[in-house]
Amino acid sequence: MTTIRQFSRIALGMLTMTGRVTMLGISRWTADGGSYRTVQRFFTTLISWATLFWLFFRSQLFDPDDVYLLASDETVVTKSGKHTPGLDRFFASLYGKSVAGLAFFTLSLVSTTERRSFPIVVEQVVRSAQEQAAAHSKAAKPNAKRKPGRPKGSTCKAKTTRDLSPDLTRIQTQIGALLQRIGRLLPLTYLVLDGHFGTAAALQMALACKLHLISKLRSDSALYLPYDGPYTGRGPRRIYGDKLNPRAIPERHLCQTSVDKDIETRIYQLEARHKTFAQPLNLVCLVKH
């Protein structure tokens, strides 16, 4: 009860205060029982926040008749200094560039009925020394064009076996721990990630977690229609047909048309293939005129 009492005062102070959130600032915005020493004691208390978030969702927010999606995204908070753990340069979409600060990765359950997001896992992104060195060297080197042809000494690799980046490995570990914590109470089918993860490696990571990936491809992605022509009689059967032109999709794939403020939006759904993905993709294409 002591921890709950401290938590109630600190949460009220964080919701009402303005400016930077610091322990000293929280203590100034709390009522009786929220001294600076109390705030310090609370933040030194070990609390299993992931378990706490899940228990709160299960007892207060869970609807057994609803359908939930598992979504994740990264949040960057700008911060200066040199001694904060995890301080590094991360890309912030609000600024459109990499900024110095802290990054937090969140897993949320999204209700498809209420259209609300419930954070379940929030963890700080702390890069290792090897990851920092790799990120800095990649940023320092310009994008040099590779010579045409196959690199000497390279071998064939199956498209279903991808080497996961440290970010994808970290996400896979978090998702596995969450699925184990949830158990059979809440069946999850889909994982929603932003366009940064619209890659073949992210798809294999999601399939390894027994989830289907919902993400966004680049607008200039080289997509191909499935081949439906005759078999030539020798060699493997073709799987890539004509290249997909988003402005000339057959009308049989049109699902919905809407007009808003003189802008017509057409939504197409079809099956397409990409040469870096092993599986055919269930593609939804939005064309605006």
Beta-sheet strand percentage?
Answer: 25-35%
Structural class: alpha+beta
Q: How many structural domains in the coordinates?
A: 3
Oligomeric form: single chain
Please identify, by name, the CATH architecture of the largest domain. Answer: Alpha-Beta Complex
Number of strands: 11
CATH level-4 homologous superfamily of the largest domain: Transposase Inhibitor Protein From Tn5, Chain A, domain 1
Helix and strand sequence: HHHHEEEEHHEHEEEEEE
CATH topology of the largest domain: Transposase Inhibitor Protein From Tn5, Chain A, domain 1
Low-confidence stretches: none
The main β sheet shows up as:
6 strands, mixed
Number of helices: 7
Q: End-to-end distance, in Å? A: 59 Å
Share of helix, binned: 25-40%
**Shape designation:** globular
Mean pLDDT: 88
Query: What is the CATH domain class of the largest domain?
Result: Alpha Beta
- Rg is 24 Å
